[in-house]
């Protein structure tokens, strides 16, 4: 823009020079005419000069005016150019934003499509099949939940009690003793399918426990005695085999404060009930201990034993026992067994 301004200034200057030159030429002509007409010549000359001076003054003022106007115009145009430049930059910025948004939407679309593809090849990780997956979906209040049937996994609808408070929550309770009105001296089929009341005393069912422990699972056992003291035993690894293998127990990596690990003795043993003696004894442990359990020969713990009330709780060998804490004839007041995946993080 400044170069154009300079050009225009030079152009105007040139025009002025031409005009002045023309005037000069006129002035040069005059004497000849004056010579041609002597007499009133000097006066005519002065008239001409004055007229030329006026003309020059007019032209100068015009030039000044033009130059000022030109400068104003230049400034205006420069301002306009700056505005346009600013506008252009804004435009580019907006374009960039739009491009970013577009690519963001595109990548989101990719993710959605990926998820859709994954949904088709749905894995067990997507299904609600225990309390930890409910916890993962923001159900964080302890209580009774209904796990939906899952055709893909071939699992039926199941009512469960979720402990969402203990040690970060996400626990599916598989056994509870606290009321004492439900007999645990049941047969194979009942232990397979589960029995009792979900808010009171119950066994979730070996088939359900087997299914829930197909992924790496933690088992937590909570015990309470008649003095209100509590202990717990945790196993970082817990699983059951299937029915064909008599729901054999596998536990490992004990931790806790329940004294001696009293489930270890039952590790690698089959489940037995009053009508199915799968224990490692000549005796019939399920008959002797009046429960269903992974009897060895016979017990170091018997969490499905007979519930004995306070006062009566130290007189029997078939009670709810954990030898490592209160020995072989102390029946506990309260027991809960609960499981959650090893991968669970609150
Ligand atoms: Ca036996």
Question: What are the salient characteristics of this protein?
Answer:
single chain, 346 residues, alpha+beta, Gamma Fibrinogen, Chain A, domain 1, 9-stranded antiparallel sheet, two-stranded antiparallel sheet, 18% strand, rod-shaped, disordered N terminus, binds calcium ion
What is this entry, summarized?
The protein has 346 residues and is an alpha+beta fold. The protein has seven helices and eleven strands.
Describe the structure.
- This protein has 346 residues and is an alpha+beta fold.
- The chain has two domains: 51-117; 122-341, Gamma Fibrinogen, Chain A, domain 1 (Alpha-Beta Complex).
- It has helices spanning 2-36, 41-120, 131-136, 188-193, 206-212, 285-289, 323-326; strands at residues 143-147, 158-163, 171-177, 195-196, 202-203, 217-224, 230-240, 249-256, 301-302, 321-322, 334-341.
- Helix 1 (2-36) packs antiparallel against helix 2.
- The relative contact order is 0.09.
- Mean pLDDT is 85; it is low at 1-39 and 117-124.
- It binds calcium ion (CA).
- Calcium ion (CA) is lined by residues 277, 279, 281, 283-284.
- The site of calcium ion has 5 residues, from loops.
- This is Angiopoietin like 7.
- One of its GO terms (biological process) is blood coagulation.
- It holds the Pfam family Fibrinogen_C.
- Residues 74-108 form a coiled coil.
- Keywords: Coiled coil, Disulfide bond, Glycoprotein, Secreted, Signal.
Q: Provide the CATH superfamily of the largest domain.
A: Gamma Fibrinogen, chain A, domain 1
CATH class of the largest domain: Alpha Beta
Oligomer: single chain
**How much beta, percentage-wise?**
15-25%
Counted up, domains total: 2
Tell me which ligands are bound.
calcium ion
How far is the first residue's CA from the last residue's CA? 68 Å
Low-confidence stretches: 1-39, 117-124
- SSE topology string: HHHEEEHEEHEEEHEEHE
Structural class: alpha+beta
Q: What is the overall shape?
A: rod-shaped
Question: Which fold name corresponds to the CATH topology of the largest domain?
Answer: Gamma Fibrinogen, Chain A, domain 1
The name of the CATH architecture of the largest domain is Alpha-Beta Complex
The pLDDT mean sits at: 85
Question: Share of helix among residues?
Answer: 40-55%
CA radius of gyration is 50 Å
Q: What's the β-strand tally?
A: 11
| Total of DSSP H or I helical runs spanning 4+ residues | 7
């Amino acid at each position: 823009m400044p170069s154009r301004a300079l050009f225009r200034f030079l152009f105007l200057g040139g025009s002025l020079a031409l005009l002045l030159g023309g005037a000069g030429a006129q002035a040069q002509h005059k004497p000849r005419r004056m010579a041609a007409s002597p007499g009133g010549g000097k006066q005519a000359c002065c008239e001409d000069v004055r007229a030329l001076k006026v003309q020059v003054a007019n032209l100068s003022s015009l030039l000044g005016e033009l130059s000022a106007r030109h400068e104003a115009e230049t400034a205006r145009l420069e301002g306009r150019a700056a505005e346009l430049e600013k506008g252009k930059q804004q435009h580019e910025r907006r374009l960039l934003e739009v491009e970013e948004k577009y690519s963001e939407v595109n990548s989101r679309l990719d993710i959605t499509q990926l998820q859709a593809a994954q949904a088709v090849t749905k894995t067990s990780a997507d299904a609600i099949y225990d309390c930890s997956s409910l916890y993962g979906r923001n159900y964080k209040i302890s209580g009774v939940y209904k796990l939906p049937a899952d055709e893909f996994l071939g699992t039926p609808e199941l009512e469960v009690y979720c402990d969402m408070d203990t040690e970060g929550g996400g626990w599916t309770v598989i056994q509870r003793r606290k009321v004492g009105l439900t007999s645990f001296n049941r047969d194979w089929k009942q232990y397979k399918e589960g029995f009792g009341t979900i808010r009171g005393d119950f066994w979730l069912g070996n088939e359900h426990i087997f299914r829930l422990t197909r992924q790496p699972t933690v088992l937590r056992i909570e015990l309470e005695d008649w003095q209100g003291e509590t202990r717990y035993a945790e196993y970082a690894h817990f699983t059951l085999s299937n029915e064909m293998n008599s729901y054999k127990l596998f536990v490992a990596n004990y931790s806790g404060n329940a004294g001696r690990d009293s489930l270890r003795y039952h590790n690698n043993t089959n489940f037995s009930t009053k009508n199915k003696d799968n224990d490692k004894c000549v005796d019939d442990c399920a008959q002797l201990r009046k429960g269903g359990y992974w009897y060895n020969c016979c017990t170091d713990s018997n969490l499905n034993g007979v519930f004995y009330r306070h006062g009566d709780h130290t007189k029997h060998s078939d009670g709810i026992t954990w030898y490592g804490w209160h020995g072989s004839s102390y029946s506990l007041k309260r027991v809960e067994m609960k499981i959650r995946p090893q991968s669970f993080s609150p």
